[in-house]
Amino acid sequence: MKARALAVFHRPPERLNCAQAVLAAHQAVTGDHSLAVASFKPWGGGRAPDGRCGALHAACLLAPASEEKLCAAFLIRIGALRCREIERPCVQCVGTAAELLEQAADGSETVAPAHKQPALRRARRVSKKSSAG
């Protein structure tokens, strides 16, 4: 699913935004075309509710029962939930959201291993500095 999302994100001929790319990838993998890709257009570019990343928002809409786990895993991997606060390229957010959505769909673990958790690593560094000083 991740590869498909990245293949269509901002690329011709579709030039899909982040939310649309996650939906398109979901459709390609599941065959479920009940939602129109165009209907996800309003949520790209930081326009999802509460400024949430559009890719994450799409994943949550497609797997509502896993929203809490998706958000927690996304926060650990990307470092923020809102577009304005994310310091990584959008393409990384699209890939992560698609990967987490696929994991949620097949019931596998949605939290990255500790060595891949940037938010936790930063928190540990800050904690070590404050206890050392």
* Radius of gyration from CA coordinates: 15 Å
Uncertain stretches: 113-117, 119-133
What fraction, in percent, of the residue positions are helical? 40-55%
Count of the domains: 1
Number of helices: 6
Number of strands: 0
Instruction: Give the overall shape, derived from the CA principal axes.
Output: globular
Percent of residues in beta strands?
under 5%
Instruction: Give the distance, in angstroms, between the N- and C-terminal Cα atoms.
Output: 45 Å
Structural class: mainly alpha
Description:
The chain is mostly helical and 133 residues long. It has one domain (2-132). Helices cover 55% and strands 0% of the residues. The protein is built from 6 helices and no strands. The radius of gyration is 15 Å and the shape is globular. It starts with a helix and ends with a helix.
Short description:
The chain is mainly alpha-helical and 133 residues long. It has helices at residues 2-8, 18-30, 54-62, 67-78, 90-106, 118-132. α3 runs antiparallel to α4 (67-78) and α4 (67-78) runs antiparallel to α5 (90-106).
Salient structural properties:
133 residues, 6 helices, single chain, mainly alpha
Please give the structural blueprint.
Blueprint: H1 2-8, H2 18-30, H3 54-62, H4 67-78, H5 90-106, H6 118-132
Helix pairs in contact: 1-2, 1-5, 2-3, 2-5, 3-4, 3-5, 4-5
